[in-house]
UniProtKB/TrEMBL annotation:
The protein's name: Malectin
Source species, domain of life: Eukaryota
Taxonomic classification: Eukaryota, Viridiplantae, Streptophyta, Embryophyta, Tracheophyta
UniProt organism field: Cynara cardunculus var. scolymus
Chain segments annotated as coiled-coil in the UniProt record: 148-178
InterPro entries listed in its UniProt record: Kinesin-like_fam, Malectin_dom
Length: 298
């Protein structure tokens, strides 16, 4: 459908997909913007119901308030400070239907559009860059949140390893004291054979015949006690080795946490620099809008 019966404004066409446009999607892919009007002649003198169709295809990255306008039908304001993006976002249709209008004897229908804030096409390039910066900062904040969660998890894991390490130290000291106590008892346990051992034919309590293999053979209960203590000592040795491995892993994890913290500091500094630059751009943009509004008012 050709654009006709207009006066003023500029024409724009886009190839982007119009969401929820239905059979009229192609209609919303072109637009006239600026301060302009449509004048339709030779209409019958009677009442009509007017439908207005809008779509934001210029400021597709937002934000709200970049293109705000009023609409007049037969010099009567029917729309006040309409911001299409704030209602439906970009590339989506906004319909104002069943606006009752009266065409007089002159057969004229005049529809006017007047901008309230800025000239969209002039501001598009700077606004798009600012919008991209805002999205990048939002992604940085999300990355920072993920990094903080990861760091907190690493810290909690290190604390857990530290607690296990302390508990293992306590067990190790306890077992060491038990071994020392057992050694002390064994060194003072030499005695003469009792009647049961004599009747069984034993000639000594401690059998040194197995010492060539590096072991002491303890008869009866004393033998069992010493074996238990020896097994406990070996168990302590194994736990000591495992504890050493856990301490090494804890050091590696702590080093990784430090590296993540340094990266977080660097990204935070970068984020602050970009945020500062963005604030300066926004101030410049606001000053430009104020000067343009003053010029429009004058």
């Amino acid at each position: 459908m050709p654009d006709q019966a207009f006066e003023g404004g500029d024409f724009l066409k886009t190839n982007e997909t119009i969401l929820d446009g239905g059979s009229l999607s192609s209609l919303y892919q072109s637009a006239r913007f600026g301060n302009f009007c449509y004048s339709f002649e030779d209409l019958s003198s009677r009442d009509y119901f007017l439908d207005l169709h809008f779509a934001e295809i210029i400021n597709t990255n937002g934000p709200e308030g970049m293109r705000v306008f009023d609409a007049f039908v037969q010099d009567e304001q029917v729309v006040s400070e309409l911001d299409v993006y704030s209602y439906v976002g970009a590339n989506r249709p906004l319909k104002l239907i069943d606006i009752r209008v009266t065409v007089g004897l002159d057969g004229m229908l005049v529809i006017k559009f007047k901008g309230v804030h800025g000239t969209p096409i002039i501001m598009k390039q700077e606004q798009t860059q600012l919008s991209c910066d805002v999205r990048e900062y939002a992604n940085l904040i999300l990355d920072m949140d993920n990094m903080i969660s990861a760091i907190q998890g690493q810290v909690a894991q290190c604390e857990d390893l530290k607690q296990k390490y302390n508990e293992e130290l306590v067990k190790r000291r306890k077992l060491y004291n038990q071994i020392q106590e057992a050694k002390g008892k064994f060194s003072h346990s030499c005695r003469s054979l009792d009647k049961h051992e004599v009747s069984a034919g034993h000639v000594m309590v401690v059998d040194l015949s197995a010492s060539r293999d590096g072991d002491l053979g303890i008869l009866d209960k004393a033998k069992q006690d010493l074996k238990s203590k020896d097994e406990a000592l070996k168990k302590v040795g194994r736990k000591s080795t495992e504890l050493g491995s856990e301490r090494l892993n804890a050091r590696i994890r702590c080093r990784k946490v430090t590296e993540v913290e340094n990266k977080l500091k660097e990204r935070t500094q970068m984020f602050e620099l970009k945020l500062s630059a963005s604030e300066e751009k926004i101030k410049k943009l606001e000053n430009g809008l104020e000067r343009q509004d003053d010029h429009t008012s004058s």
